[in-house]
Amino acid sequence: MSRHILHVATNIAHFDNPAHPTGLWLSELTHAWDVFAARGYEQRIVSPRGGKVPLDPRALKWPMRDASSRAWLSNPAKMALLSSTPCPADINPQDYDAIYFTGGHGVMWDFPDSEGLQAITRAVWEKGGIVSAVCHGYCGLLNTRLANGSFLVSGRKITGFSWTEERLAGVSREIPYNAEAEMKARGALYEKALLPFMSHVVADGKLVTGQNPSSARATAKKVVSLLGGL
To answer: Are 27 and 135 in contact (CB under 8 A)?
Structure first.
Protein backbone atom coordinates (compact mmCIF):
# COMPACT_ATOMS: atom_id res chain seq x y z
CA MET A 1 0.00 0.00 0.00
CA SER A 2 1.41 3.37 -1.01
CA ARG A 3 2.06 5.88 1.73
CA HIS A 4 1.09 9.54 1.43
CA ILE A 5 3.35 12.39 2.55
CA LEU A 6 2.34 16.03 2.95
CA HIS A 7 5.22 18.49 2.66
CA VAL A 8 4.77 21.99 4.10
CA ALA A 9 6.59 24.99 2.59
CA THR A 10 6.61 28.74 3.23
CA ASN A 11 5.02 31.60 1.31
CA ILE A 12 7.35 34.22 2.80
CA ALA A 13 9.86 35.71 0.36
CA HIS A 14 11.87 38.06 2.60
CA PHE A 15 12.82 38.99 6.14
CA ASP A 16 11.20 42.03 7.76
CA ASN A 17 13.75 43.92 5.67
CA PRO A 18 12.43 43.47 2.09
CA ALA A 19 15.99 43.73 0.80
CA HIS A 20 16.88 40.46 2.54
CA PRO A 21 15.27 37.61 0.57
CA THR A 22 14.41 34.23 2.01
CA GLY A 23 12.03 31.37 1.23
CA LEU A 24 12.14 27.59 1.05
CA TRP A 25 15.56 26.03 1.56
CA LEU A 26 15.19 23.88 -1.53
CA SER A 27 17.38 20.92 -0.60
CA GLU A 28 15.32 20.36 2.55
CA LEU A 29 12.43 19.57 0.26
CA THR A 30 14.27 17.77 -2.52
CA HIS A 31 16.37 15.48 -0.32
CA ALA A 32 13.29 14.23 1.51
CA TRP A 33 11.25 14.06 -1.70
CA ASP A 34 13.91 11.85 -3.28
CA VAL A 35 13.88 9.47 -0.31
CA PHE A 36 10.08 9.18 -0.34
CA ALA A 37 9.91 8.90 -4.15
CA ALA A 38 12.35 5.99 -4.06
CA ARG A 39 9.79 4.15 -1.92
CA GLY A 40 6.95 4.96 -4.31
CA TYR A 41 5.15 7.24 -1.85
CA GLU A 42 2.54 9.74 -3.05
CA GLN A 43 3.59 13.30 -2.19
CA ARG A 44 1.99 16.74 -2.14
CA ILE A 45 3.09 20.22 -1.07
CA VAL A 46 0.94 22.62 0.96
CA SER A 47 1.70 26.18 2.09
CA PRO A 48 0.04 28.41 4.72
CA ARG A 49 -1.64 30.71 2.18
CA GLY A 50 -1.49 28.50 -0.88
CA GLY A 51 0.01 29.69 -4.15
CA LYS A 52 3.69 30.35 -4.79
CA VAL A 53 6.54 29.05 -2.67
CA PRO A 54 9.59 31.35 -3.04
CA LEU A 55 13.10 29.90 -2.93
CA ASP A 56 15.85 31.16 -0.65
CA PRO A 57 18.62 32.32 -3.01
CA ARG A 58 21.33 31.22 -0.57
CA ALA A 59 20.19 27.63 -1.02
CA LEU A 60 20.63 27.88 -4.78
CA LYS A 61 24.37 28.53 -4.60
CA TRP A 62 27.27 26.11 -4.24
CA PRO A 63 27.63 23.94 -2.20
CA MET A 64 23.90 23.88 -1.33
CA ARG A 65 22.93 23.61 -5.00
CA ASP A 66 23.65 19.91 -5.22
CA ALA A 67 22.49 17.30 -7.73
CA SER A 68 19.12 16.90 -6.03
CA SER A 69 18.40 20.62 -6.11
CA ARG A 70 19.64 20.99 -9.68
CA ALA A 71 17.41 18.15 -10.83
CA TRP A 72 14.39 19.86 -9.30
CA LEU A 73 15.29 23.29 -10.75
CA SER A 74 15.64 21.82 -14.24
CA ASN A 75 12.33 19.93 -14.09
CA PRO A 76 9.37 22.14 -15.17
CA ALA A 77 6.83 19.74 -13.65
CA LYS A 78 8.58 19.87 -10.27
CA MET A 79 8.92 23.67 -10.36
CA ALA A 80 5.21 23.92 -11.19
CA LEU A 81 4.49 22.21 -7.86
CA LEU A 82 6.03 25.23 -6.13
CA SER A 83 4.28 27.84 -8.27
CA SER A 84 0.77 26.85 -7.25
CA THR A 85 0.39 25.02 -3.94
CA PRO A 86 -2.88 24.25 -2.15
CA CYS A 87 -3.69 25.91 1.17
CA PRO A 88 -4.59 23.97 4.34
CA ALA A 89 -8.33 24.24 3.64
CA ASP A 90 -7.74 22.18 0.48
CA ILE A 91 -6.17 19.31 2.42
CA ASN A 92 -7.87 16.33 4.05
CA PRO A 93 -5.44 15.21 6.77
CA GLN A 94 -7.00 11.75 6.80
CA ASP A 95 -5.38 11.20 3.40
CA TYR A 96 -1.83 11.44 4.80
CA ASP A 97 0.39 9.09 6.76
CA ALA A 98 2.99 11.74 7.57
CA ILE A 99 3.48 15.48 7.49
CA TYR A 100 6.95 16.96 6.85
CA PHE A 101 7.68 20.62 7.57
CA THR A 102 10.46 22.03 5.38
CA GLY A 103 12.59 24.99 6.41
CA GLY A 104 14.12 28.23 5.29
CA HIS A 105 13.87 31.33 7.45
CA GLY A 106 10.55 32.35 5.91
CA VAL A 107 8.74 29.69 7.92
CA MET A 108 9.48 31.61 11.12
CA TRP A 109 6.86 34.13 10.03
CA ASP A 110 4.07 32.06 8.50
CA PHE A 111 4.23 28.58 10.07
CA PRO A 112 3.65 29.10 13.82
CA ASP A 113 0.26 30.82 13.76
CA SER A 114 -1.35 28.97 10.84
CA GLU A 115 -4.44 27.43 12.40
CA GLY A 116 -4.95 25.40 9.25
CA LEU A 117 -1.52 23.79 9.53
CA GLN A 118 -2.07 23.20 13.24
CA ALA A 119 -5.36 21.41 12.53
CA ILE A 120 -3.75 19.18 9.90
CA THR A 121 -0.82 18.36 12.18
CA ARG A 122 -3.08 17.55 15.11
CA ALA A 123 -5.25 15.30 12.93
CA VAL A 124 -2.28 13.42 11.46
CA TRP A 125 -0.79 12.93 14.92
CA GLU A 126 -4.00 11.85 16.62
CA LYS A 127 -4.83 9.28 13.95
CA GLY A 128 -1.44 7.66 14.50
CA GLY A 129 0.52 9.31 11.69
CA ILE A 130 4.02 10.74 11.80
CA VAL A 131 4.83 14.40 12.36
CA SER A 132 8.25 15.46 11.10
CA ALA A 133 10.23 18.62 10.45
CA VAL A 134 13.70 19.69 9.42
CA CYS A 135 15.69 22.80 10.33
CA HIS A 136 13.39 25.85 10.77
CA GLY A 137 10.45 23.62 9.88
CA TYR A 138 10.02 22.90 13.57
CA CYS A 139 8.62 26.42 13.93
CA GLY A 140 5.46 24.88 12.47
CA LEU A 141 5.12 22.83 15.65
CA LEU A 142 5.53 25.68 18.13
CA ASN A 143 1.85 26.38 18.71
CA THR A 144 0.23 23.08 17.74
CA ARG A 145 -1.93 21.76 20.56
CA LEU A 146 -3.51 18.36 20.87
CA ALA A 147 -7.17 17.69 21.61
CA ASN A 148 -6.44 17.78 25.35
CA GLY A 149 -5.01 21.29 25.05
CA SER A 150 -1.36 20.39 25.59
CA PHE A 151 1.39 21.39 23.20
CA LEU A 152 2.33 18.53 20.88
CA VAL A 153 6.02 19.18 21.64
CA SER A 154 5.64 19.32 25.43
CA GLY A 155 7.73 16.64 27.11
CA ARG A 156 9.01 15.32 23.79
CA LYS A 157 12.54 15.25 22.43
CA ILE A 158 13.03 17.52 19.45
CA THR A 159 15.68 19.28 17.40
CA GLY A 160 15.81 22.06 14.84
CA PHE A 161 18.02 24.94 13.75
CA SER A 162 19.88 26.01 16.89
CA TRP A 163 20.52 29.48 18.23
CA THR A 164 24.24 28.86 17.75
CA GLU A 165 23.61 28.15 14.07
CA GLU A 166 21.49 31.33 13.76
CA ARG A 167 24.40 33.36 15.13
CA LEU A 168 26.92 31.65 12.87
CA ALA A 169 24.62 32.28 9.89
CA GLY A 170 24.73 35.98 10.74
CA VAL A 171 20.97 36.49 10.99
CA SER A 172 20.28 36.36 14.73
CA ARG A 173 19.41 40.07 14.79
CA GLU A 174 17.00 39.80 11.87
CA ILE A 175 14.81 36.89 12.88
CA PRO A 176 11.60 37.43 14.87
CA TYR A 177 12.41 35.05 17.75
CA ASN A 178 14.79 32.40 19.06
CA ALA A 179 13.11 29.16 17.96
CA GLU A 180 15.26 26.97 20.20
CA ALA A 181 14.29 29.02 23.27
CA GLU A 182 10.62 29.10 22.27
CA MET A 183 10.59 25.31 21.94
CA LYS A 184 12.07 24.93 25.42
CA ALA A 185 9.49 27.39 26.79
CA ARG A 186 6.75 25.06 25.54
CA GLY A 187 8.23 22.13 27.39
CA ALA A 188 10.07 20.53 24.49
CA LEU A 189 13.23 18.58 25.31
CA TYR A 190 15.51 20.27 22.79
CA GLU A 191 18.66 18.49 21.61
CA LYS A 192 21.39 19.42 19.14
CA ALA A 193 24.53 17.98 17.60
CA LEU A 194 27.89 18.55 19.23
CA LEU A 195 29.02 20.55 16.19
CA PRO A 196 26.89 23.12 14.30
CA PHE A 197 25.59 22.29 10.81
CA MET A 198 26.24 18.56 11.18
CA SER A 199 23.45 16.09 10.43
CA HIS A 200 21.42 15.33 13.53
CA VAL A 201 18.05 13.60 13.78
CA VAL A 202 15.91 13.08 16.87
CA ALA A 203 13.00 10.65 16.98
CA ASP A 204 10.58 10.53 19.89
CA GLY A 205 7.91 8.02 18.96
CA LYS A 206 6.02 9.40 15.96
CA LEU A 207 7.78 12.80 16.19
CA VAL A 208 10.86 13.02 13.92
CA THR A 209 12.98 16.16 13.59
CA GLY A 210 16.23 17.11 11.88
CA GLN A 211 18.45 19.96 13.03
CA ASN A 212 19.59 21.64 9.81
CA PRO A 213 19.77 21.30 6.00
CA SER A 214 22.31 18.48 6.32
CA SER A 215 19.70 16.45 8.20
CA ALA A 216 16.94 16.30 5.59
CA ARG A 217 17.78 12.91 4.05
CA ALA A 218 18.32 11.26 7.42
CA THR A 219 15.06 12.72 8.70
CA ALA A 220 13.14 11.33 5.73
CA LYS A 221 14.81 7.93 6.10
CA LYS A 222 13.71 7.80 9.72
CA VAL A 223 10.16 8.63 8.67
CA VAL A 224 10.31 5.79 6.12
CA SER A 225 11.49 3.34 8.78
CA LEU A 226 8.64 4.33 11.09
CA LEU A 227 6.06 4.09 8.31
CA GLY A 228 7.24 0.57 7.66
CA GLY A 229 6.19 -0.34 11.16
CA LEU A 230 2.70 1.14 11.03
So the answer is: no
Domains contained in the chain, CATH given: 4-227 (3.40.50.880)
Contact 230, 97 (CB under 8 A): yes
The helix or strand, by DSSP H or E, that contains position 78, with its residue range, turns out to be helix 76-83
pTM summary value: 0.97
The span from the CA of 159 to the CA of 182, in Å, is 12
Instruction: Give pLDDT tens digits for 13-61.
Output: 999 999 999 999 999 999 999 999 999 999 999 999 999 999 999 999 9
Question: Which residues are 99's β-sheet partners?
Answer: 6, 131
Dihedral of alpha carbons 176, 181, 187, 192, sign: positive
What is the DSSP code string of 177-207? S-HHHHHHHTT-EE---SSTTS--EEEETTE
Tell me if 24 sits within 8 A of 104, measured CB to CB. yes
Give dist(CA 80, CA 52) in Å, integer. Answer: 9
